[in-house]
From TrEMBL:
PROSITE patterns: FAD_PCMH. InterPro entries: FAD-bd_oxidored_4_C, FAD-bd_PCMH, FAD-bd_PCMH-like_sf, FAD-bd_PCMH_sub1, FAD-bd_PCMH_sub2, FAD-linked_Oxase-like_C, FAD-oxidored/transferase_4, Oxid_FAD_bind_N. GO terms for cellular component: mitochondrion. It comes from Glutinoglossum americanum. Belongs to the FAD-binding oxidoreductase/transferase type 4 family. Signal peptide: none annotated. Keywords: FAD, Flavoprotein, Oxidoreductase. This is FAD-binding PCMH-type domain-containing protein. Residues 47-226 form the FAD-binding PCMH-type domain.
Length: 489
């Protein structure tokens, strides 16, 4: 079995292949613990990796040669982008080699007529969006981690984000993919065509596959015009039912200009206030808040529509109070009360995250039921004797996607035992999804059966085995020989 262990001669090969010192972080022949730390630890500080080698290729050709070598030598690999994933999928939890896409960061082309962008997978989302902004376009995905996440990582997780309601999912916007299979084969499907019904649409397999069948190295994606007029409103509501009705009315009144409808409960906003010390947008306290955004090309038209909507929801007593951003600074400030939630919830040391799809009428019930459960066993309280700081819910109401977060004073087995499989069973009973947008990673791998049938799982395994046959030949439990980290077995 020692033949499968990473050794110095492997490292020497990679140094020769990638040429420069900075392309290989080598913890095999020397102590590089500090340099490896960022790759061995996730954003939540929940999962710990044990890699001793990080490779930072600069081209698709280099990725291909890395993968071929790893396949021939039965060395396990985990792709890593910006390492902002929330399910531990990018962490070498065994001792895999990390293939980082950080240096695959060129914007290859942008066509100002069609709006098609072609870029390396390691480009940072915000950098790409800035490039597009200069050309009056925008990326069809936006999320709180935009300053660090890579567009390849976005595709690999099929990230949803804040404007899926408006621009749809990456499955619709991605036109082409370049990827490297576990055996080193380059899949060159970087099409820029909008229409191409010639056989299977294989690129879709890589979107949301979390790196299990290959490493995405290039992306071709259709980008929409950047909206000229953006309005953001934030309001307080008495109960969840009113939020649901406010959403229904938003679709009715705002239709094509509605670009986001986000829900935040009072608990989440209180915790943001506590951590940031910022003054909340509204004077009063409410059990629920919504953030609504319109984007369009004609400010007067959008203002008129939004005005009509606000008048309606106020007259019907659907909302209790609200504020409308008057300028760009206020737009950003209102968004910070939504986008800042994930970071603030980790403030006390730990956070259990559940990212679920549930039919809208019951979307928030999961938060109340989870809070009641943790309360009944005495785990929630204000002082340090209680492990749980808060049980809150927020998320993409427009997509029926709830983020249930349980903020704790550290990761705690007793709390976890109360939450899992309770949350997954709860979601299964409502025919929901246990992973709406973050993927399975290491966190949800054991629970996939709550959302997928045996038949579907077997089809997934067939695909994995087809593209990563080396993995199939290896006895279970020997992570060092997984060719691309396998989350579906
Ligand atoms: P990583 O974390 O590096 O990797 C994620 C997974 O993809 C891993 O399994 C990894 O192995 C694989 N992978 C990475 N790159 C590649 C590649 N090139 N080829 C193949 N596999 C690859 N998600 C949402 O859906 N919506 C949100 O609104 C949202 N908001 C977030 C806000 C914050 C503050 C944070 C921290 C995260 C948020 N996320 C959200 C999680 C989301 O998954 C990531 O932010 C993002 O999509 C991951 O990109 P990344 O480059 O960081 O990928
Ligand atoms: C968001 O919508 C992200 O802010 C993160 O998907 C959600 O941290 C979470 O649970
Ligand atoms: Zn989200």
């Amino acid at each position: 079995m020692s033949v499968w262990k990473l050794n110095n001669s492997h490292v020497q090969y990679f140094k020769w292949l990638l040429g420069s010192e900075s392309a290989v972080i080598d913890g095999v022949s020397k102590d590089a613990t500090a340099d490896l730390e960022a790759f061995n630890c996730d954003w939540m500080r929940k999962y710990r990796g044990h890699t001793k080698l990080v490779l930072r290729p600069r081209s698709t050709g280099e990725v291909s040669r890395i993968m071929k070598y790893c396949s021939d030598n039965m060395l396990a690999v985990v792709p890593q982008g910006g390492n902002t994933g929330l399910v531990g999928g990018s962490i070498p939890v065994f001792d895999e080699i990390v293939v980082s896409t950080a240096r695959l960061n060129n914007i290859r082309s942008f066509d100002e007529v069609s709006g098609v962008l072609v870029a390396d997978a390691g480009c940072i989302l915000e950098v790409v969006d800035r490039h597009l902004a200069e050309r009056s376009y925008t990326f069809p995905l936006d999320l709180g981690a935009k300053g660090s996440c890579h567009i390849g990582g976005n595709l690999a997780t099929n990230a949803g984000g804040l404007r899926l309601l408006r621009y749809g999912s990456l499955h619709g916007n991605v036109l082409g993919i370049e990827a490297v299979l576990p055996n080193g084969t380059v899949v060159d499907e970087l099409s820029t065509l909008r229409k191409n019904n010639t056989g299977y649409d294989l690129k879709q397999l890589f979107i949301g596959a979390e790196g299990t069948i290959g490493i995405i190295t290039g992306v071709s994606i259709l980008c929409p015009q950047r909206p000229k007029a953006v309005n953001v409103a934030y309001f307080g509501l008495e109960n969840f039912e009113k939020a649901r009705l406010a959403f229904r009315e938003a679709k009715r009144h705002l239709s094509e200009v509605l670009s986001a409808f986000e829900l935040m409960d009072g608990g989440s906003q209180d915790l943001v206030e506590k951590v940031t010390n910022n003054r909340p947008p509204l004077k009063g306290k409410y059990p629920f808040y919504c953030l609504i955004e319109t984007s369009g090309s004609n400010k007067e038209h959008d203002d008129e529509k939004l005005g009509g909507y606000l008048e309606f929801v106020l007259n019907e007593h659907l909302i209790s109070d609200g504020v409308l951003a008057q300028d760009e600074t206020q737009v950003r400030s209102l968004w910070s009360w939504r986008e800042g939630i994930p970071e603030c919830l980790g403030h006390w040391g730990g956070v259990y995250k559940y990212d679920v799809s549930i039919p809208l009428p019951e979307l928030y019930q999961l938060v109340d039921d989870t809070r009641a459960r943790l309360s009944s066993v005495g785990l929630i309280g204000d002082d340090e004797n209680f492990p749980v700081v808060g049980v809150v819910g927020y998320g993409h109401m427009g997509d029926s996607n709830l983020h249930l977060n349980v903020s704790t004073r550290g990761f705690d087995k007793e709390v976890e035992k109360q939450l899992e499989p309770f949350v997954y069973e709860w979601v299964q009973k409502r025919n929901g999804s246990i992973s709406a947008e973050h993927g399975l990673g290491i966190a949800k791998k054991p629970f996939i059966g709550y959302s997928r049938s045996h038949k579907m799982l077997n089809m997934m395994k067939d695909i994995k085995n087809l593209y990563d046959p080396v993995r199939r030949a290896i006895p279970d439990g020997l992570s060092t020989v997984a060719n691309v980290y396998n989350q579906n077995e």
